Amino acid sequence: MGIQNSKIYSSPLSVFSRKNKDAKLVENITMHDKEDHNDKELKELKEEEEEEKERVEDRSEEDLDEEIFFKFVILHADDDIHEALRVQEMLQNDFGIKPGIIFAEMPCGRQHLQNLDDAVNGSAWTIFLLTENFLRDTWCNFQFYTSLMNSVNRQHKYNSVIPMRPLNNPLPRNRTPFALQTINALEEKSCGFCKQVEKIFQDSVYEKQKAIWKTEKNTVDA
Question: Which of 36, 105, 176, 199 is paired with 186 by a 20 to 30 Å CA distance?
Fold first, then answer.
């Protein structure tokens, strides 16, 4: 008597259970992949931030060890380093106004007041980055009033303080400190921005200030 072929039928419950397990496995794999992707993005972001900090510090040591008289220094809030770097690169690359520096590139380990004095007196123009962060930073307010007094007390520094409202997160005019409202600001969003820049950053003014800076430096070093 032969053995008859028999068909094995799976119960609906066992099929459903297997499909449910497969779905959970796929979901777990997907979630794990997403977590790995997020961790990778976070790691890359941290690495980029560290590289930028190192780049700023390296430029600081290379540039300032050489006694350079800069065309401009950008004073900014701590949270505006990225914007300050963008403006610096724009002025140097698009308008040829170089060399320039931002305050974050000043030497580490020195007193802020010493760095501020060197930054203001070691450059022809002092640019204030007027952003929303500017009002929240007490140090920025101190920088402004100190720089303004310097421009008043030193004849060759007259008109050397330049407020600037950048493209990103600009400080509204109605919230700008009164003392700053008395000075014509650079408006990056303005259609006349390019002409403003060309009118302000004159090579003749730079050369005059550089000559005075050299004379004062030689007197101190003598």
Answer: 105
